[in-house]
Amino acid sequence: MTQFSALASFGAKIERRFIEDGFACRTGKGTHAGMRRAAEFARRFDYALKCDVRQYFPHVDHGVLLELLRRVIGDRRVLELCENILASHRDRERRKSCGADRGRG
Fold first, then answer.
1. Which site from 20, 21, 40, 83 is most exposed, i.e. has the minimal number of CB atoms within 10 Å?
2. Domain assignment present for 104
3. Would you place residue 98 in the very low, low, confident or very high pLDDT band (cuts 50, 70, 90)?
4. pTM
C-alpha cells in the first residue's frame, strides 16, 4: 500500500522519464499491451533475447536512486517515504542473507 501511495503522489512526474516499452505496473499499459508490443517486435525481427537480471533491484545504488528522485520530487515527506521503502527492502535482503527468513515463502 505504501508504494501505491508514493506512486499516486509522484507517478505522473516520473512516468514521462520511463522508456516506452516498459509495461509492468504502469497506467494504460499492462500485460495485454506488452503482448501486443511483443507481437509487433516478433513480426519485425527474426531473433529475440529473453532474459531476467537476477537480483537486480538489491544491486541498484539506493543513494543514486534517491538523488534522482530528489530532482523530481519536491515534497520532503514523499522523499522520506521513498527512503523508507528502499530501507525496508535493504533490511529484508539483509535478513535473508543472514538466514533469518529461512522457511518463509
1. 20
2. no
3. low
4. 0.59
31 within some domain: yes
How many domains does the chain fold into?
Answer: 1
Asked, for residue 105, whether it belongs to a domain, the answer is no
Q: What is the pLDDT, as a whole number, of residue 94?
A: 55
C-alpha cell at 41: 517486435
Whether residue 12 is contained in a domain is answered as yes
Per-residue pLDDT band for 105 (boundaries 50, 70, 90) equals very low
CA pair distance 70, 57, nearest whole angstrom: 19
